[in-house]
Amino acid sequence: MTVSKKRRVQDYIFLHISIMIFSFTPVFTKMASIEFNKNGIWGIRLYFFFFLMLLDCFIYALAWQKIIQKFELSVAYANKSVYLIWSQIWAVIIFHEVLTIKNVLGLFIVLLGVLVVQKYE
């Protein structure tokens, strides 16, 4: 593998790790909502999850600024749709939600779209 290909692979790994990190934002939001429903505005965990949500967005914003320097915007945004796949994974693993055939089909279509954009980069 050439140095430029190796660097490109590292850039894509950074891109997808950043997207995975961002996919935790709705997880923290839902956990804050659950805490709010249990204990109202006085639940200390509500503020903890709110803080994690803001921290997650801050880290992602910094990472995104680095990412868009390394990719064309169309490629970066096409890959950002992988966020939906991570969100479904967290919904199943963390919240024990059911993954339907429609969900899987939709995720497959999104992944196919990302692969099409990747092919032309």
UniProtKB/TrEMBL annotation:
The chain crosses the membrane at residues 12-32, 44-63, 75-93, 99-117. Keywords: Membrane, Transmembrane, Transmembrane helix. SUPFAM superfamilies: Multidrug resistance efflux transporter EmrE. It comes from the Bacteria. This is EamA family transporter. InterPro entries: EmrE-like (IPR037185).
